[in-house]
Amino acid sequence: MQLHERLASGESELDLHVFQSESRTPVERTLVLLHGLPRALGMGRTAAGMLPELGEHLAHESGWLVATGTMSGVGASTGTFSGTQWLADLTTIVDRLSEEEHPIACAAFGLGGNVALRLAAHDERIRGVATFATSAHLDAWCGEPEKFRAQINRAGVVQGGHQLLDPDELVHDVLQLDPLGSIAQIPPRRLLIGHGAEDLEVPVAHARDLYAAAEEHAELRIIQGAGHTLRADPRMVATLLGWLDRH
């Protein structure tokens, strides 16, 4: 079963796909699957392109209800990126999925993981978070504000006639996601931190710093030989499915 919906999030309209297996006994749990922030030329249109396929696979293998949310400015969703807007987007998605009255978990890549951690720190409806290739130190990840803003512009995560925030304001807004402070507030709820050992964009030390900030109340999985892009890595999929089974 697949549903496709459009959700209003402020001035943005979000693309939401919901999958449930028709061959497995349903598990009364919901997983929200989120993409990261594209920074390469033109990637804003395609950054979430693999998520529906992954969501359908996870639903079929786990029995969970799996939703893939596309954030403002990415893919078919309208609007423009900011950390604050993406946090509002995820809140909108969780509000919609809460109608199912199932416990909700999030699995997210890159900056999507930071958004999920931030919301979970303040929203008890989220009973677990799995992050993959997520930064513990967003100041280092963003880098120089002018360059960061230019990268996002080139990626095309800007729609609907709304400009990105000014460089310093844009980075300051992202830093408010506060990965280390957020993850510290989530235990005893479930946490999984997955990372590629050869990640050149977000060094694997970031995963260990997130693990330490959670006072080791998390599952830490370092995937040997893997880089930053984990969505198509079968070891990542197996790791996530195992976490769902234990949830």
From TrEMBL:
Entries under SUPFAM superfamilies matching the protein: alpha/beta-Hydrolases
Q: What is this protein called?
A: Unannotated protein
